[in-house]
Amino acid sequence: MHNIKIISTSNLFGIQANPIQIMKMADAFSDTGFNVEIFLPGWKKSMNSTELSGRYGVKHNFKINFIPNISIKKKFAIITFAIGSFFKSLNWDDRAIIITRNERVAAFLVRAGKKVIYENHTFYYPSEDITLKYRQRVKALMKNKNVCMITISKRLKELWVNDGLNSDKIFVAHDGVDLAEFTRIAKFKKKELRKKLGLPLEKEIICYAGSLSKGRGIEFILDAATFYKNKNYLFLIIGGINSEINKYKNKLTSNNVIFTGYIENSKVPSYLRCADLLVMPYQRKVVTIDGCSPMKVFEYLASGNYILAPVFPSFYEVMKDFEGITFYEPENKRKFIYEIENILQNPNALKFHDRFDKLNMYSWQTRASKLLNIYFQFFKLDLPRYFGY
Question: What Cα–Cα distance (Å) separates residue 73 from each residue in 11, 65, 79, 104, 124?
Fold first, then answer.
């Protein structure tokens, strides 16, 4: 039987989005009938995915292994992990399907003669120098016949092709969403969910979920909260670490904002569903905004709630096909604030927007199946009989 090896530099105990995608994809690959293993940097003993099921909501039991690395500096840590991955891979069957999001790891694996799916999520890094070196590494990697690239948006593929990469070696697979969990949550009334989460029953809730780092537009939300301080509105901000939350709390001039801090991904569907309006105040200063396609897009769509979103190409390429969305020009704060009340005063906007049928193409299971089909077709291999999805 083919084994799927997912090699990641993610911290499964962190609060970033990366480990969520890793765990959800591993769970979805397990649905297809393949054996799945995750490999991470570290000196821990192997563990089972069931030990993290409460955090990520995974159903299957797959192995999480650790490859020792030396973490003196970040760059050096990744290189030692890549070298460790190289030697680990020498013991793997040639039929092993290897997936990684790290270009250095992928480069070492193809040197070991392995076929690799390299999943790419960004075209940019914070500085020009880092970005240039990163693109040079990716271009060198993609010259190898034993690697193909998966990008998470059409826009991201376009950026790489315009930079000289071969279009025939790049495939698009947007991020995914746990439709089963959102479908289950949709059966509950909002008041039931709010009571369970300790949120006000009679307020109209405007919710943002995600990182609180620079460029996410949290200032827009706080300004909107101040503008609507005499309305029956509650602004719910999910995510962030204490230092970020305290920074924004010090800027508050109204008492209609709640910061939840980090919430385990398995609980996010309940928070999103119990809101009335979901907002995405992303700004252009987010380094990866051109080409990125965050999981938040798909989780927002699956919630059934109305969405206020900026018109970034990689967002729009997905969201344009769904109802219940108002787009605004990024960084137009006046428009952002105005549309909040405009939407909440519209009874049709507050209805349940059932997007589940269209979202089937963005489920984690569909994405896993798509990646496997890409793998077998690109490398001209026969699909195994037990490929059951």
Answer: 16, 22, 10, 15, 21
- Residue 299 near residue 269, CB atoms below 8 Å: yes
pLDDT tens figures, 328-383: 999 999 999 999 999 999 999 999 999 999 999 999 999 999 999 999 999 999 87
Would you say 38 and 22 are in contact if contact means Cβ atoms under 8 Å apart? yes
**pTM higher than 0.90:** yes
Q: How many C-beta neighbours within 10 Å does residue 152 have?
A: 25
Q: Which residues does residue 6 pair with via DSSP β-bridges, in sequence order?
A: 38, 99
CA distance 64 to 205: 38
Burial of 132 by CB count in 10 Å (0-12 exposed, 13-18 middle, 19+ buried)?
exposed
Q: Name which of 196, 207, 260 is nearest 234 in CA terms.
A: 207
Which structure tokens are listed for 109? 């694996």
Paired with 117 in beta bridges are 99, 148
- Kindly give the residue spans of alpha helices, DSSP state H, lying in the chain: 18-31, 53-56, 74-89, 103-111, 128-142, 154-162, 179-185, 190-197, 218-227, 242-249, 268-273, 295-303, 313-319, 333-344, 356-359, 364-378
Q: Distance between alpha carbon 283 and the CA centroid of its chain, in Å?
A: 18
> Which domains does the chain show, CATH number per domain?
3-176+363-378 (3.40.50.2000), 179-358 (3.40.50.2000)
